[in-house]
Amino acid sequence: MQRKWERARQLRNAATDAERHLWRHLRGEQLAGLKFRRQYPLAGYIVDFACIPARLVLELDGGQHLDAVGYDAERTRAIEASGYRVLRFWNDDVLLRTDAVLEEVWRYLESREE
């Protein structure tokens, strides 16, 4: 497990533009006051962003994910089997349509409270 935490730290230090951009919006208390963690070990994987209280994972996908559809589906199944909901967004959407991405996350957070 220690290796996962070390790898997570490396990934945080080498964040993509989209990850840094979204993190600026998530790290404050801008989404229902819930805290997000980035590059967080979960279910044997390191997820891009996790909100533990809301049981929510946000995954950002770049072009390389077009070749990893099967792996991503397996990863999503494992994370959801651990009781989390996974929302996936393309890097371009995070960078160019940030408000729409945040709105979708907000809608999920609101729906779980009902």
UniProtKB/TrEMBL annotation:
Single annotated GO MF: endonuclease activity
- Domain DUF559, first and last residues per copy: 4-109
Does the keyword Metal-binding belong to this entry? no
Record's keyword annotation contains Phosphoprotein: no
InterPro entries according to UniProt: DUF559 (IPR007569), Endonuclease_DUF559_bact (IPR047216), Restrct_endonuc-II-like (IPR011335)
Top-level taxon of origin? Bacteria
Q: Which Pfam families match?
A: DUF559
Q: Which UniProt keywords apply?
A: Endonuclease, Hydrolase, Nuclease
Which PANTHER family does the record associate with it? BLL0828 PROTEIN
Protein's name in the database: Endonuclease domain-containing protein
